[in-house]
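Work Package 3 (structural annotation) set out to generate three-dimensional models for the target panel prioritized at the project kickoff. During this period the team completed the workflow that converts sequence records into discrete structure tokens, so that structures can be stored uniformly alongside our sequence database. As a representative example, we reproduce one entry of 122 residues exactly as it appears in the project archive.
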Amino acid sequence: MTAEARTSPARRRPAPGRPVPVSTYRLQLSADLTFDDAARHVPYLADLGVTHLYLSPILRAAPGSTHGYDVVDHQEVSPDLGGRAGLDRLVAAAHEAGLGVVVDVVPNHVAVPTPAWHNRAD
């Protein structure tokens, strides 16, 4: 890819037919606010005029994590948040209400939990 293509304003725009996030609402997911809990708030957020839910990290984090940025397995949606099935329910609820979903992906964030065996060995 050329330097011009990397810095082109078109590169930063969603693909044709994809909505542009205009009004995001960030949800700090945790054991106290799971995917299913968040799904129950979707109608209210849609009424507020939110266009997209912005989800904090959703991958398996160190035990007891309150923020999700201390990822221990980049291949598993957090069971503490409701796992893949819970994420699918939240996304379905959001889409039914006309909302998009943005996920905070943190591929370079990892944890050194105690015990260390919580980290995936890949």
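The two ends are 30 Å apart (CA to CA).
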